[in-house]
Specification:
The complex is a heterodimer of chains A (244) and B (594). In chain A, strands 6-7-8-3-9-10 form a 6-stranded mixed beta sheet, with helices on both faces. A 4-stranded antiparallel beta sheet of chain A has the order 2-1-4-5, covered by helices on one side. Chain A has one domain: 3-Layer(aba) Sandwich (Rossmann fold). Helix content of chain A is 36%, strand content 25%. In chain A, a hairpin with a 2-residue loop joins β9 and β10. The C terminus of chain A is likely disordered. By secondary structure, chain B is α/β, with parallel strands linked by helices. Chain B folds into 2 domains: 259 residues, MetI-like (MetI-like fold, Orthogonal Bundle); 250 residues, P-loop containing nucleotide triphosphate hydrolases (Rossmann fold). Helix content of chain B is 50%, strand content 10%. In chain B, the strands form 2 sheets. In chain B, strands 7-8-9-3-10-11 form a 6-stranded mixed beta sheet, sandwiched between helices. Chain B starts with a helix and ends in a 16-residue tail after the last helix. The chains are: A alpha/beta (244), B alpha/beta (594). At the A-B interface, β6, α4, α5, α6 and α8 of A face α7, α8, α17, α18 and α19 of B. The site of iron/sulfur cluster (SF4) has 12 residues of chain B, from loops.
Chain lengths: 244, 594
């Protein structure tokens, strides 16, 4: 179990500040939800933690040590866009196997691929398919299996359920809760869907214009929001219930 | 393939066989010295004459093919390999050093190619090896630049990032992920370049910088023949023609490859003429028994298995269903965007009065059909700025001037709530966030005056506040223009919010069709009910696992005899498993009453 902490992290592209002094801690075995509007820097925060975005200020630490930004990262990321996250020329099995540490033998590799596919509710026969034959939701589950294959300490899940249909979304959310319980995974769970975040996250951070405007236990943030922007998010999410 | 491509291939086959077997077949003939026939003109015995030792020139041209082709290929290979190494530098040695290399390449590309060749030829000295190195090196910058552009496009994709995070080494990323995905255009270009290299090589040998006696390639033969050009023009022209023919062979073949993925929008596929039906009068979209079959390794995939529906003008119809149920394929079919080998069949498929099963219908549709896709990144060309890409639509379909079209593009970007639209219009797609890209995509759909908007998961990647704005925007457009909407979404709440009517799809069929307001409360099909129950909301019980639909969707290659949902349905009985239910009175279920 590991602690991932962002300490006064800033990310700037030229004159454009995407993240401004963001401090956030993903405690061991905890799931932190990160919500905020599109383009507010949610993905950038996750990308910075794996060395895909340039950190221009502050530090990102895993158990007190700077997160390695080379080699197999102990922090794995699952991406938002299932269409660009799988190599169209590699089979599902190859994609998943590539992320496994220590290159297991063929038998062990196949068994592990089958296990991971089962974890994400895909048929083991899918291992031989190219991504072009999968629908969006099926691809995203493969991406999740790949992240798990690397045996990460922390998972950064960037809108991983937004491309999934509800029946699978439920299964993935259940899976994520199981994983936290059984594997002690720490997770930063980025989503725009408050109902989803509420279901998986222990605490919630609200990002607005590159700054964290509210942070606290999920029940408190969603139950008694203090910041106007959080209230706005909740208002936008709630009427869907009354609508019917 | 087009006739030009066939000609190219045929020619290349001939050239390659001559190169392979020439020296074996005519090698002896080419070295026989005929002292009685020195520098003779064409005759029945010596078709294009003889050289100063009386050797048969035609045989020599044929024999020279091997060396000429091999040297051209060697030089091309050098260019290609160097080009890949230089072009992939940003991946291999990191961004900063990579940028330096890229600028150096850009400077080199600006040099005239011939100058570089001569420069290197002098450095490496005369002879075949020196010439190959010179031509190869001189060709490298052009390949490096091409390679760089291709690599840059691929590097943006998330799978590269995922591989790097998983600790895959740079070299392996290049080998496993980058090269396979850029191989196609590279090979095409290399083939075309080989033709040019052949010419350059002949030029070098002709100048005496290339192949040296006693070896000979076509350029050397031309040089030898030059002395007698006024007496025996064929002695120089013969090898010249060989160069031109071989060059053409490479070029045409390359072009044929490049043109191979010829985009056509015709739907093709066999159709039973007796089954053709008339569209529902007045409907903007009328579909009868649409079936889409995709070839697959494990047999054909029946992505859509016979669906019938209409959309009235101004109406908003939602399509929900789980992943793989055929929603996107339906959308693509209706938009006329599926091409062979995918087979689309329907008794009719009429959009805005155009029968999409007829040739050229897609073009005639013009801007009356707007399409917004699930995947905004591939909808935009990563190499062009966003504004001009939007403007292109109006320039192509509405004949607007460049300036007017760009102004409209900026206006549309503003309409989809993109801040600072003037500045944003001049940015590249990768500079947009996922949500902004999607808004720009919708903006592109609004460049014309759409009568039907097909939106496949348009708000999936957006957060609630923006999602709402986009949905309101779509509603606004529909109010203003009377456009109808076919909204594909797995998000039941979005569909109930926006649509008048909902089609629920399962395994390529419509299993239920009902007013959107009834979806949550009055659904009759067990699948629809399970789907609705699986949506978490702000009151979901946190102590219990979320409701999920047990089991897996049917394998799309199979055609189950009975109800496709039976293996997952709590109400299934033997009758369900044996007989497929028809869609009757809005529901396809034997036990919808219970
Ligand atoms: N290019 C393709 N080649 C082979 N099979 C395909 C292709 N595109 C789709 N399929 C298959 O067709 C079926 C329907 O896919 P489709 O993309 O329409 O699903 P969908 O309902 O849009 O799913 P999602 O909600 O995940 O987007 C699936 O079984 C899928 O695997
Ligand atoms: S037809 Fe039978 S198996 Fe199919 S949904 Fe209805 S009850 Fe279930
Ligand atoms: Mg889809």
């Amino acid at each position: 179990m590991s602690v991932l902490s962002f300490q006064e992290v800033s990310v700037r592209y030229g004159a454009h500040t995407v993240l401004d002094d963001v401090s956030l801690e993903v405690a061991a075995g905890q799931t932190v939800g990160l919500v905020g509007e599109s383009g507010c820097g949610k993905s950038t925060l996750a990308r910075a933690a794996v060395g895909l975005a340039p950190v221009t200020g502050g530090r990102i630490l895993l158990d007190g040590e700077p997160v390695p930004t080379r080699g197999r990262r102990p922090v794995q990321m699952v991406f938002q866009d299932p269409y660009s996250s799988l190599d169209p020329r590699m089979t599902v099995g190859e994609t998943i196997a590539e992320a496994m540490p220590d290159r297991p033998g063929r038998k062990a590799r196949q068994a592990e691929v089958a296990r991971l596919l089962a974890l994400v509710h895909l048929d083991a026969a899918r291992a031989l398919d190219l991504p072009g034959r999968l629908s969006g939701g099926q691809r995203q589950r493969v991406a999740l299996a790949r992240a798990l294959a690397a045996r990460p300490e922390v998972i950064l899940a960037d809108e991983i359920t937004s491309a999934l249909d509800v029946s699978v979304q439920g299964a993935v959310l259940n899976l994520i809760r199981d994983m936290r319980r059984d594997l002690g995974l720490s997770m930063l769970f980025i989503s725009h869907n408050l109902a989803v975040v509420r279901y998986v996250a222990d605490s919630v951070a609200v990002l607005h214009h590159g700054r964290i405007v509210e942070y606290g236990p999920t029940a408190q943030v969603l139950g008694a929001p203090r910041h106007a922007y959080t209230r706005q998010l909740l208002a936008a999410a709630s009427p869907l219930k009354e609508h019917t | 393939m087009r006739p030009v491509g066939v000609a190219g291939f045929g020619l290349l086959a001939v050239v390659v066989s001559v190169a392979a077997f020439g020296p074996v077949l005519w090698g002896d003939q080419a070295t026989v010295v005929d002292t009685g026939n020195l520098l003779a003109g064409p005759s029945a015995e010596h078709w294009i004459g003889t050289d100063n030792l009386g050797r048969d020139l035609f045989a020599r041209v044929l024999v020279a093919a091997r060396l000429s082709i091999l040297l051209a290929l060697a030089a091309t290979a050098i260019s290609l390999v160097l080009g890949i190494i230089l072009g992939a530098a940003p991946i291999l040695v990191g961004r900063r050093l990579g940028r330096l290399i890229t600028s150096a390449v850009n400077v080199l590309v600006a040099f005239p190619g011939l100058l570089l060749v001569l420069f290197f030829a002098v450095i490496f000295g005369v002879g075949a090896r020196g010439a190959a190195l010179a031509v190869g090196l001189a060709g490298a910058p052009a390949f490096a630049r091409l390679c760089h552009t291709l690599v840059a496009a691929v590097s943006e994709r998330d799978y590269i990032a995922a591989a790097r995070i998983a600790g895959v080494s740079r070299l392996r990323v290049l080998r496993r992920h980058v090269l396979p995905n850029i191989a196609e255009p590279l090979i095409v270009n290399a083939t075309m370049a080989a033709g040019g290299v052949l010419l350059t090589f002949a030029g070098l040998s002709f100048l005496g910088l290339g192949v040296q006696a006693p070896s000979y390639d076509w350029g050397k033969l031309m040089q030898d023949g030059l002395n007698g050009i006024y007496v025996h023009p064929l002695a120089a022209l013969g090898p010249g023609i060989a160069v031109v023919l071989a060059g053409l062979a490479f070029n045409l073949t390359g072009e044929a490859f490049a043109a191979a993925p010829n985009r056509t929008f015709s739907l093709g596929g066999p159709r039973d003429p007796a089954g053709v039906t008339a569209p529902v009068p007045g409907a903007i979209l009328s579909v009868d028994d649409l079936r889409v079959t995709i070839p697959g390794p494990a047999g054909p995939i029946h992505a859509v298995r016979g669906i019938t529906f209409t959309v009235e003008p101004g109406e908003a119809v939602g399509v929900v269903g789980e992943s793989g149920s055929g929603k996107s394929v339906t959308a693509l079919a209706v938009a006329g965007l599926l091409e062979p080998p995918v087979r689309v069949e329907a008794n009719h498929l009429v959009v805005a009065g155009e029968d999409l099963t007829a040739a050229g219908a897609h073009r005639r549709l013009g801007t009356s059909l707007a399409v917004v896709f699930q995947d905004p990144m591939t909808s935009f060309n990563p190499a062009h700025r966003v504004g001009p890409q939007l403007a292109e639509v109006s320039r192509f379909h509405q004949g607007m001037s460049r300036k007017a079209a760009f102004a409209r593009a900026v206006d549309r970007l503003r309409a989809v709530r993109i801040g600072e639209p003037e500045r944003r219009a001049r940015q590249y797609p990768f500079e947009f966030s996922g949500g902004m890209r999607q808004r720009a995509m919708i903006g592109m759909g609004l460049m014309g005056n759409p009568r039907l908007i097909i939106a496949d998961e348009p708000t999936t990647a957006l957060d609630v506040t923006v999602q709402r704005q986009i949905l309101e925007l779509l509603a606004e457009v529909r109010r203003d223009t009377g456009a109808a909407l076919l909204l594909i979404s797995h998000d039941v709440s979005v569909v109930t919010d926006v649509c008048d009517r909902v089609l629920v799809m399962y395994a390529g069929r419509v299993v239920e069709e009902l007013p959107a307001k009834d979806l949550r409360t009055l659904a009759r099909h067990p699948y629809t009910r399970a789907l609705v129950a699986a949506v978490p909301d702000l009151e979901t019980d946190l102590d219990r696992p979320l409701a999920v639909i047990p089991g897996l969707p049917v394998d799309p290659t199979l055609s189950p005899a009975g109800c496709a949902f039976a293996p997952r349905c709590p109400l299934a009985d033997d009758h369900c498993r044996a007989v497929a239910p028809e869609l009757l009175a809005g529901v396809a279920c034997h036990r919808s009453g219970s």
